[in-house]
Amino acid sequence: MSETCEGITRRGFLGGVGGSAAGVATGSAAGVATGGAAAAATPARAPAPPSSTPSPSRGEVPALWHEFDRTPFTHPQIPYVGRAGCHGGATRFPRRPVVADVRDHGAVADGTTDCAPAINRALAAAGRAGGGTVLVPPGTYRIDDVIRVAHDNVVLRGAGSTRTKLYATRNLTELIGVYGSRYGGDKSSWSWAGGLVWLAPEARWNSLVTAIRARDWPFEGWTGNRRDEWRTLTTVRPAPRGSWTVTVADATRLRPGRLVLLRLADDPGHTLLEHMAGDGPGPEAYHWDDKTKLTSYVPYEWPVRIARVRGRKVTLERPLPLDVRPEWDPRLTTHVRELTGAGVEGLTLEAVETPQSPHLLDKGHNGIVLQCAYDCWVDDVVVRHVDNGFGLVAASACTVRRTRVAGRGSHHPYFCREGSHDNLIEDFTIERRTTPAPSNTQLHGINVEGLSSYNVWSRGDMRMGTFDSHRGMPFANVRTDITVDNNGRHGGDATAGPLFGARFTHWNIRVTNERAGLMKIDGLAPYSATVGINTVREFDQVDVPDFTGDLRSRLELYGTTDAVRPRNLYEAQKALRIK
Questions:
Q1: Residue 379 to residue 374: CA distance in whole angstroms
Q2: What pTM was computed for the model?
Q3: How far apart are CA 430 and CA 411, in angstroms?
Q4: Could you tell me where the beta strands, DSSP code E, fall in 183-299?
Q5: Residue 231 in 3-state DSSP?
Q6: Distance, CA of 262 to CA of 331 (rounded, Å)
Q7: Which one of 54, 153, 256, 527 is CB 3.0 to 4.6 Å from 278, fit for a cystine?
Q8: What is the reported pLDDT for 382?
């Protein structure tokens, strides 16, 4: 269904539109800005149009929005992310009844007593009780171990990020052990995995820790350490991207509310990867076989709840992220048990201040990570002096809201990887570092990689960092209504393949230092949209397109700030659906 689905109607929402409905586009009259073979041939792309280019009046509605409003689930450049986040982007999180106070389990807010055992006892008791809120009253609580939220419907709640502090004295290398990379080398996987507050189902966490201590470096996602913990529920008939309902061969093991994985395997010609890149001559000409890290990320695994089953017709709670084609052996499968309905709220996690480690050798003074989590959340949380801040690792349909990364500077302030989908990161801040960056360290920013898709970063204040598309061909992600001092650098191994797949959208982005890299992406990302960004120029890290030929990317309202309406693409997409 390209425009509507049963039970869903749409209305336009333009966020206080004023002025003309015509956007300013580059390229053709349709707003196509071509990446082309010429762009691929030279390291530095053509300079941006001069800042003297006339700016449209405030309140411009770009042509792209009108197109998207007509076909929201199948637009070629803009992904539909209107259901990203916990419970489809709900504005309020569940309020679980209080079932424990950490002080009743032995925690003392004196800043010197190790309270990790008491906090974990309280969380485990809440889990045995079937869920509930564990209170951490005002004060400073020293923790010498990982805090584990491992049971459904358990919420760890402080008195507010300015009133409750967890002071972490040790790192994950000390607590769990050295964690090498499954791709070899001397890298530390704590540079992109794990948290000192770790939300993950208990069995999955135990399995990961056992593998790390055995130096059997694991896959970290929904199908276990070796990606073999799944079984087929049913095969799926062909269906186009954007469909909400699919036809299955056998629906007897499916029921409303069940979380399943849509599994798509690649074929020898890598047509699945080509599809993620938008199909066409550019992806067809790309050499995929030597991108061994990228090819290890498939099959593509997309968790989704079933909304309705009628005969062999199965309606999903989100539209299909990709076509379902027979050559990709599409099926709905089981997965490791998820963590659902859990959250962390109202506290600061401060690590003991140590110098930032050399690049890729982080010890694991990490913040909060959600792993194999679905419909979980983090709200009103600050992390300080961390190697890596807030992480989504094989996490989907989660919300990270009102968060802040502060202190001495981080490698990945926010990371989203290992096939994480449909997440919402909103009202986030990356503060300027409080100490100079040591030599041989790296700063990324808001990271996304590893075929992660349909994630949203909204209403951000990035006082350092960049839009770190970390190779691994993430696709169909949105960054909207963000101010950024673009002073970080992206990462990514060459064997991880392209920086971008199709349908990346940057919408209303304010770049305070005018650096173009990874902000203005019409010359880099296939089938992408860059809408409402101030005039920028190329300097520092400069990339060439991964794909040759016409990228079929779009650029509108270039040279403006806050002129585009709707101002926030995610919020406007949410308003398109009314139950």
A1: 15
A2: 0.91
A3: 12
A4: 197-199, 232-235, 245-247, 259-264
A5: coil
A6: 6
A7: 527
A8: 99
